[in-house]
Amino acid sequence: MNPSQSHPQFSAVVEAPWGAVGIRTEAGLVREFVYLPPSFNEKAPADALSEQAARQVEHYLQDPDFRFDLALAAVGTEFQRRVWGAISSIPRGEVLTYGQVAKLIRSAPRAVGQACGANWFPLVVPCHRVTASGGLGGFSNHDDETGFHLGVKRWLLAHEGVKAYR
Question: Where does the Methylated-DNA-[protein]-cysteine S-methyltransferase DNA binding domain lie (predicted)?
Answer without folding.
Answer: 78-162
